[in-house]
Design goal:
About 40% of the residues lie in helices and about 15% in strands. It has about 375 residues and is an alpha/beta fold. α7 runs parallel beside α8.
Length: about 375
C-alpha cells in the first residue's frame, strides 16, 4: 500500500543545517517547518475555520481522547469524517490519546493490553488499547494518525523509562498491524524519557518499522529546556514532529536541530487570560499599564486584532469579560506563531537561519518568556 503522506526535503540551510520541506497529504501540502494549532474538540478555541484560513494555518490537530468521549467517533464518522464535521478542508492530525491518558495519573491503570481509566467528564470506566486508538482515529479520518504510546513522567528512573519505551515499541507494532485506512498515514512516537541512549535506541527501533513520520514524545512535561533539546533523535528522511511544544525559543532551537513540526495549546490558552506573544517577549495586555495605550498589541503585526484595535480596547474587553477580547488575543497569538514559522522558512531558504535566530534573540526578552 502506497503511503498517502510523504515528505519532500527541499533545501538545507548552508549556514545552520536547518531544513525546509513539504509534507504532501490528501488534503493539501504543508510547508515545513510548521506550527500546528490545536483544535482539541474539533475546533481551535475561539476561532472559526474561516479565521484559521485567514491567519494562514496549514494544518490543525484534534484530540482522540476528547473526541472519543464527546461526541464519539461514530457521530464524526456519520457526519462524513472530521474534515466535514468541522468544515476544515485542509490537513488534520489526530493524536493517539496517549498523553491525555498519561495526564490522568490518579484515574488510570496501564497494562500490556492498554490503558484503563475513568472519564474526566463523568467518571465512567473507559479503556483504550493500541487497536482501539487506531479504530477511533480511522473513524475520525484525519490525514495523520499517531501511534498509541506510553509517556514517562519527569523525573523518572531509568527502569521506568525503559519499560515505557519497550511497551511503546510493542504498541507501535500493534498499531501498525491494525491500521488499514489507505488515505491516512500513521506516525510512530519515540520515547525514552531523558536518557540519551534510550532515545537513540527508540529512534532506531521505530525507524526499522518504517513509519512515514515520527513524533518525539514524552518531552515538554516539566524538564529543563536544554534537557529536551538534547533528546531530538529521529531519521533524517522522514518528518520529525516535536509534540506539545509552542514557544518561540523552542521553535528556534527545534528547527536548528532538524525538527519539522510543532504543536501546542499554549497560544490560545494564555490568550484567554490576556497574555500575548510579542517580539519582545510576553505581554499581559489586561494589565492596568495598558488602560490608556492606544497602540496595537504589537506594532507591525499583520493580524486582524493588531490591524484594527488597540491594547486599551482589548484590555477593556478582557476586563469586561466580553468573549471578543479572548478571540482577538487568540487571533494575534496564533498568527504570531504562524508568521514566525513563515519567516523561519524564508530564512532557511536564503541560508541565513542563524542570523534570523540571533536577531530574534536580540529583541526577545527571555525573562518574559513562557
Amino acid at each position: 500500500m502506497s503511503n498517502p503522506v510523504t515528505f519532500e526535503l527541499l533545501h538545507t540551510c548552508k549556514q545552520s543545517g536547518a531544513r525546509l520541506g513539504v509534507l504532501h497529504t490528501p488534503h493539501g501540502d504543508i510547508p515545513t517547518p510548521i506550527y500546528m494549532p490545536v483544535g482539541t474538540q474539533a475546533t481551535v478555541k475561539a476561532m472559526t475555520p474561516r479565521e484559521m484560513e485567514e491567519i494562514n494555518a496549514k494544518i490543525i490537530l484534534s484530540n482522540t481522547y476528547h473526541l472519543h468521549l464527546r461526541p464519539g467517533e461514530d457521530i464524526v464518522r456519520e457526519a462524513g469524517g472530521l474534515h466535514q464535521f468541522m468544515d476544515w478542508h485542509h490537513p488534520i492530525l489526530t493524536d493517539s490519546g496517549g498523553f491525555q491518558v498519561f495526564s490522568l495519573s490518579e484515574l488510570r491503570k496501564i497494562t500490556e493490553e492498554g490503558a484503563a481509566f475513568r472519564s474526566h467528564l463523568d467518571g465512567s470506566k473507559q479503556f483504550i488499547s493500541p487497536e482501539i486508538s487506531m479504530d477511533i482515529q480511522q473513524a475520525l479520518g484525519a490525514d495523520i494518525a499517531m501511534a498509541f504510546d506510553v509517556c514517562s513522567a519527569y523525573p523518572c528512573d531509568r527502569k521506568t523509562a525503559e519499560e515505557a519505551m519497550h511497551r511503546t515499541h510493542r504498541w507501535a507494532a500493534r498499531c501498525k498491524k491494525h491500521h488499514t485506512r489507505s488515505d491516512q498515514a500513521l506516525f510512530g512516537i519515540v520515547q525514552g524519557a531523558f536518557f540519551d541512549d534510550l532515545r537513540i535506541e527508540s529512534a532506531k527501533t521505530l525507524a526499522d518499522m518504517d513509519f512515514p513520520g515520527y513524533g518525539i514524545g514524552g518531552l515538554s512535561v516539566g524538564e529543563p529546556k536544554p534537557v529536551m533539546y538534547d533528546m531530538l533523535h529521529l531519521p533524517k528522511n522522514k518528518p520529525r514532529y516535536l509534540m506539545g511544544v509552542g514557544t518561540p525559543d523552542c521553535f528556534l532551537e527545534g528547527v536548528l536541530r532538524g525538527v519539522d513540526m510543532f504543536d501546542c495549546v499554549l497560544a490560545t490558552r494564555i490568550a484567554r487570560n490576556g497574555t500575548c506573544f510579542t517580539r519582545n517577549g510576553r505581554l499581559v495586555v489586561r494589565n492596568a499599564a495598558y488602560a490608556h495605550d492606544f497602540t496595537p498589541i504589537e506594532e507591525g503585526c499583520d493580524c486582524y486584532a493588531c490591524q484594527h484595535f488597540s491594547r486599551a480596547y482589548v484590555r477593556h474587553l478582557l476586563k469586561a469579560e466580553e468573549i471578543t477580547g479572548g478571540r482577538l488575543t487568540s487571533i494575534h497569538n496564533l498568527r504570531f506563531l504562524i508568521r514566525m514559522m513563515e519567516e523561519i522558512r524564508q530564512a532557511i531558504l536564503e541560508d541565513r537561519f542563524l542570523d534570523y535566530r540571533k536577531e530574534f534573540y536580540e529583541k526577545y526578552d527571555l525573562t518574559r518568556n513562557f
